[in-house]
Amino acid sequence: MSYIYIVAIKLEDHSYLETLESFIFSTFHLKTRRRELKINLDDAFDTNRVQYNSSLILRQLITKPPLNAEKILGVLDVDLFIPILTFVFGEAQLKGIGAVVSTHRLHNRFYGLPENTEVTTDRLLKEAVHELGHTFGLIHCLQPKCVMNSSTYVENIDQKSAEFCPLCQKSMKVEKNGPVNRMREFFSLGRDK
Ligand SMILES: [Zn+2]
Ligand SMILES: [Zn+2]
Questions:
Q1: Alpha helices in the chain (DSSP H)
Q2: 57-100 pLDDT, tens per residue?
Q3: How many whole angstroms from 46 Cα to the centroid of ligand 1?
Q4: Of 168, 123, 122, 176, nearest to 141 (Cα)?
Q5: CA distances (Å), 111 to each of 80, 107, 116, in order?
Q6: Fewest CB atoms less than 10 Å from the CB: which of 67, 76, 79, 162?
Q7: E strands present in the chain
Q8: Considering 21, 70, 91, 131, which one is annotated as catalytic?
Q9: DSSP secondary-structure letter at 136?
Q10: Which are the contacts of 68, defined by CB distance < 8 A and separation ≥ 6?
């Protein structure tokens, strides 16, 4: 059995995590587990930008992953960046094991609007599925409603759905049913499809 591990790296409000976990399960058909992991955020802090370098966080997140980890998703609430962009909602390793996502710019209050937990949760689900999609080998999709459509601004997140379009869904299947997983499926179901 392999799991998608969820690491709350630095998160004041943990109330999103339960919804996030059940949504991840229904999307990827992989069980989730929470993992405590000490990540030194100071190492990723850029004093000039007053933001955190997501690549440096990701690097710490994927060191010594549990043996049964299919993926590891770090969730936090600080402002993330990568050097070429002013900010990012998250970052993932393409076809890798790790992804991080931040709620920082997903809150309405960040944009001076009244806070709405439902809206924040909805955005977090989309961004988490998007970043995990990258770890399963998916690249950005041009379908406006597809969750793999790239989001530059929070409005873009609101415009897309939390689902993969049929084409991305198909690529996901191919990726997940690669040689290793096919073998795993063979043994667990007793037959290959
Ligand atoms: Zn992306
Ligand atoms: Zn798509």
A1: 17-28, 54-61, 117-135, 154-159, 166-176, 179-189
A2: 999 999 999 999 999 999 999 999 999 999 999 999 999 999 99
A3: 23
A4: 168
A5: 16, 8, 12
A6: 67
A7: 3-10, 31-34, 45-46, 51-53, 69-76, 80-81, 90-92, 98-102
A8: 131
A9: T
A10: 1, 2, 3
Q: Count of residues for the chain? A: 193
Q: Take residue 51 and report the two structure tokens written for it.
A: 């933001």
Ligand 1: centre distance to CA 96 (Å): 13
8 Å CB contact between 121 and 139: no
Residue 96 carries which DSSP code?
Answer: S
d(CA 132, CA 121): 16
- Could you tell me the pTM of the whole model? 0.90
Identity of residue 117: T
Token digits for 159?
Answer: 């415009």
**In the block, residue with structure tokens 């710490």:** 60
Question: How many Å lie between the centroid of ligand 1 and the Cα of residue 22?
Answer: 22
Measured in whole angstroms, the distance separating CA 76 from the mean position of its chain's CA atoms is 11
